[in-house]
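Input.
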Amino acid sequence: MTKKGEDGSELYADQSEKTLVVKHNDKEYEFKYRDMTWSGRNKAISAATSIDQMNKGHFDLDRYKRLCLTTMITQHPFKEDLEIALIKIDSKIGEQLEEIIPKPTEIIGEEEEGFTEPQ
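Output.
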């Protein structure tokens, strides 16, 4: 049986710091991160969405993923700024980092009318 919730703070996003271990060339690299809040996801979606002169919507998946990671990651092994590093990383590293990103198809339907991913 489900209990009645009384403490509204239980509805907040988990902001505890988590660790993602990324493997590359037989080495492990730690990334510390926090889950995105609902508002944070909305801001990333808004920033990655545009409408052209023909009123056709576009969703920039690359920008969305980089915005999410720069918002979520609190510690990383790069010696340079995270935004710059994310542009340069190996695709296999990117695939591992994607594990923590909220999937955009959960937010914007895959077949949302009038929206396309940039080519």
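The helical segments are 38-48, 61-72, 82-88, 91-97.
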